[in-house]
Amino acid sequence: MLQLPSKFIMAPLKLGYSDGTGVITQRHLDFYGERNKHIGAIIPEPLYMDAGLREIPTQIGIDSDNKIPGLQRLNEVIHQYGAKSIAHLNHPGRMANPKIPGNFFWSSTSKPCENGGAIPEKMDRKKMDVVIKLFVDSAKRAVASGFDMIELQFGHGYLLAQFISPAVNDREDEYGGSFNNRVKFPLEVAKAVRGAVKIPIITRISGDEMIPNGFHLEEMVAFSKMLEETGMDAVHVSAGSACSTPPWFFQHMFIPKGKTWEMAGKLRKELEMPVIFVGKINSAKDIKFIENSYGAEYLALGRALVADPDFVGKYLGETDGLIRPCLACAEGCLGGVKGGKGLGCVVNPRVNTGLQKVTITSSAKRFAVVGGGLAGMEVAITLHDEGHQVDLFEKNELGGQFNLAFLPPNKSNLKEIVDYFVEEIMQQQEPKVNVI
Ligand SMILES: Cc1cc2nc3c(=O)[nH]c(=O)nc-3n(C[C@H](O)[C@H](O)[C@H](O)COP(=O)(O)O)c2cc1C
Ligand code: SF4
After folding, report:
1. Among the atoms of ligand 2, which is closest to the Cα of residue 336?
2. Is the ipTM of this complex over 0.95?
3. What is the pLDDT of residue 429?
4. Residues annotated as catalytic (active site), given as ranges
């Protein structure tokens, strides 16, 4: 077992909140500080192990000892209410960002990702040793920084998955070809890190690459058993690849909910070590379903905690209020990271905007809000929560033009945010807002 104060773990999400030098900033402390209650552990965004291996220019680094004080400060924030912290270590291989000056690209192959990216250098033994040392040094720095656990990335189309994948790995040496050959280098990394640190190590895998010629669950069950024998402590089951199947990796709304849970459920039957479930877990119904269907012990939440930092507290009944639902749209979060502004959220205006938490006013007034679309309802609820009296004028239905957004196929889940606002307004016998 992982000895966490709660079964919920925050999944790693790139934030893009650093300043270009890889240090922890106040934006990181504020973001994780808002999400550190009722949660078992937080996995902050992947920490780059060398400045030439960044996926985004504003990523956090663990590449040198001068990063340790900032990471210690981050850990103090995560630990404030008892949550554990998990350092996610990843080598992107050929998926390092080609637009970042100084980045370098190593892989099991010299083929670039078919959807764009730099031409990588096919790694020789010397480069493999360099990579193993990077993981070991970073793991030791994670311990020195006060992290309680480490998560090693074996999935999502990054370097170690580039070795495991039969679609990517075209080597003819002892590290290519058969399954046992393809997993050899990833297992060398696992063994080296296991030998270097005593804290628990979680392994993140893609249960399936989601391409016909890629690896599938059967191989990942066999690989996970090998990881278990190597002394790994848990497996965190995601899907897809940042190169070939990104919507699976970040679980876009068009991806069917539950495929990652099904794979995690199968792995759970085969392994002694705990399995972490992840992927679009964004309601009490999802949590109950996963627990009842698969007996899940640990659940990782990514965007649900972006959309609603109090998701877990509200689910547990320890924090008042309705859960503000994540729409799995990836617009504000992934869109914000890719666009260079940093992670934001289309349903939570307090993410990455500097907006302060609601405070009760000492001079209550009466406000009229004209238009009951999403923005109008947000303003009306905020004014009410600040202690004002609010009249909300809407000619048609609450939700406004957004009521058209969920009519096209595969977009029905967008209705959840309208339902949330309407319920927030109408929830009490005495509605929060006077709707006219
Ligand atoms: C903006 C964003 C950034 C992400 N960055 C990473 C990453 O760097 N490494 C990783 O392993 N997963 C990353 N993920 C995937 C998440 O860890 C998680 O597996 C995925 O979002 C599904 O969980 P969720 O539906 O609870 O958000 C990212 C997802 C999003 C939306
Ligand atoms: S931007 Fe969309 S997908 Fe991302 S956290 Fe917000 S609602 Fe969820």
Report:
1. 1
2. yes
3. 60
4. 158
